[in-house]
Queue: 2 jobs
Job 1
Amino acid sequence: GVNIKGRSFLSLLDFTTSEIEYLLDLSVDLKRMKRAGVPHRYLEGKNVALVFEKTSTRTRCAFEVGAHDLGMGTTYLDPSGSQMGHKESIADTARVLGRMFDGIEYRGFEHEKVEKLARFSGVPVWNGLTNEFHPTQALADILTMREEFGDDLKGKKIVFMGQVGNTADSLAVICSKLGIDFCQCGPQEDVPGNRTFQPWIWERCQDEAAKTGAHLSVTDNVKEAVSGANAVYTDVWVGLGQPKELWESRIALMSPYRVTDEVMGMAADDAIFLHCLPSFHDTNTTVGAQIAQGFGISEMEVTDSVFEGPRSRVFDEAENRLHTIKAVMYATLG
Ligand code: CP
């Protein structure tokens, strides 16, 4: 049987196909219990630290509610409220937290930081998002796919429309490990403001795909990418807090890759729409309104009609963050 007790969860590259499937099966069990109101306080008396150097809604709430459902206590360290990396080295903070907590979640920037935290703390560390990877997100994405298409997703196809980043990286990794076809569709030129896959990540995914039969590709041709896709996935084109010049060039670069009804119409008949959220589809949000005013556009990475439409599974996907993150904590601490 699979046993990942004591392990950190930093990147899905570190986990085998069976270990990933085990985490997904466990997520299904935990979701069923939660929905049926069956208590599952399996980790009563343990405590976890939730370190966020960037803001979060879903990830933070999933870790907090997940930990509480498992009977654990939580301490949240906000983006500015800890000494880590400023007044104290990562290695020192890691050793302190490791003396007090049974597990540590970390969201931040450089992936090396979460690796260092794991190396020095001596307790399981879970990656809540780094520049390179967003592994808990990918687990929730695939749980949502399973709910729609069944447990065996071999031969299904997911298209990621738009900007490469941590979400696309982890999606490519999990698809390659599970034999799911994956295509990233976006500009492929080496121009300022554009990001394509880092060669080392893409090569690792190709190695995994060779074992599982997954077909991985990148293209700038929307029709070619979306044809036959069972899921069309997207993410925001630019992060909050990034300079206006970047917004301007990124919007111009990414606009051809907006997920519209027409794009969904090119996919398989049963295709679903996925988005890790938050989304800027809604110009009623502060950021959405700024974009609409500043750039004279009313729609960003996805149209309202797709986001709110019958193929959208974005809120199931968001809920699944809870069940999958809970599975990760339980499997590594239980
Ligand atoms: N998808 C995701 O990571 O959401 P948050 O940034 O709200 O945690």
Job 2
Amino acid sequence: MAQNSQSDKKFRLLDDRGELISELPVFAGALGFEVVDVRHLLDKAGYCTFDPSFGSTASCRSTITYIDGDKGILLHRGYPIDQLAEKSTYLEVAFLLLFGDLPNANELAQFGKDITYHTMVHEQLTRFYAGFPREAHPMAILSAVVSALSAFYPDSTDIFDPEQRLLSIHRLIAKMPTIAAMAYKNSVGQPFVYPQNHLDYSSNFLNMMFAVPAETYKVNPVFAKAINALLIVQADHEQNASTSTVRTVGSTRANPFASISAGIAALWGPLHGGANEAVLAMLEQIGDKKNISEFIKRAKDKNDSFRLMGFGHRVYKSYDPRARVMQKICDEVLHEVGADNDPLLALARELERIALADDYFVERKLYPNVDFYSGIVQRAIGIPVKMFTALFAIARTAGWLAQWKEMIEDPDQRIARPRQLYCGESPRDYVALEERKSLTDTAAKVHRPMPSEPAIVGH
Ligand code: ACO
């Protein structure tokens, strides 16, 4: 855990008469903004902070990932994402996220062995798949099967035993590609392909996805390299929605399989990991360069729910560095499949060019995010659109587990329990059944809008 980084600086919170409400300590991070410590504001001064969606709230200390959204910087344990994506394997990055530094040759060999030892799933677990409809979304299967792992591995659910924690970590990183590939095989009616431990992590995934018993399948090294890069750029992204979910669920001392399953559910949404699927659907909907202006117009229209998928980010207010990595990989993969002139890529590039020159996107600092190009890469490799988010979940498992491990090992960690700004009824007497009005009569009252700005107390 990081050293205590409390600075000498203190914030003095005064009321409108200049009376001191509270003195708030300030933490200086190793990089980035300073953080005001409001942990004791409620018990000492009777005030809460209001920050729905946590845009200005640091929910934990962490030493894993640093993002400078204005400069477009993403570092894992200090290493820039583009260097990691170019030079590392996904397992090296997983080790880095989990244990604090890149492994040496012996450590990497041992970690690789620990992971490959656990790539198979319990044979009884394979029967789960028969119960899902063929058209089931792989994310539904993934979150259900990962949660079910806790039933198969009760020997690794004691979160306070470091050895059991490590065993769960190995199992989850090892089994995610197997579980995801099985979901795909089930959807196309092909037999499951067992993991091959002589293959590297990405090649093994491709083999489990595309090999069939009737033919010899040879993994294309360009595809394996692309999957490796894709897994690395999606491996961790500090306290995003799914990671915060994993931490929140884990803070209740739920077992790691349940916590990761919750992360998978959070990742599924189209505003988060589901965006890569949505980008492809959007590009197909736009269809032709001549339609771009109409869709840009719709994206800007506040009365239209359409948004440019793969654009914008809560943290990045400049080009997402992961999108740059994916752009390069995209070129390599499309060249490999002889689709340098792929119309969908040409459409994506033109859409990006037009959006980045448009005042609406410029003023709001909306740039392509990681998902803008990752879907095109996966499509060229032959991965079905429905599997895009499942691949993201495989990648993010390393980050979720590193964050979960850090949280369990953090002595400051308590159960996550936010407060609220209550905007409902004042105390009132119970109304007998025969005297109650129908909800439609009282609808205006029941559904009254929330105050969007808090009252300015004292005026
Ligand atoms: N298209 C059009 N307008 C947009 C877009 C977009 N993709 N993204 C943001 N905006 C606009 C909003 O309407 C808002 O405009 P306003 O200030 O006039 O009201 C402004 O930009 C700020 O947007 P917010 O929604 O407040 O930004 P927030 O940080 O809450 O949302 C998010 C970030 C969810 C990623 C958003 O940009 C979005 O919906 N993007 C599309 C979905 C997407 O690509 N998600 C993947 C994110 S990366 C990941 O999770 C791996």
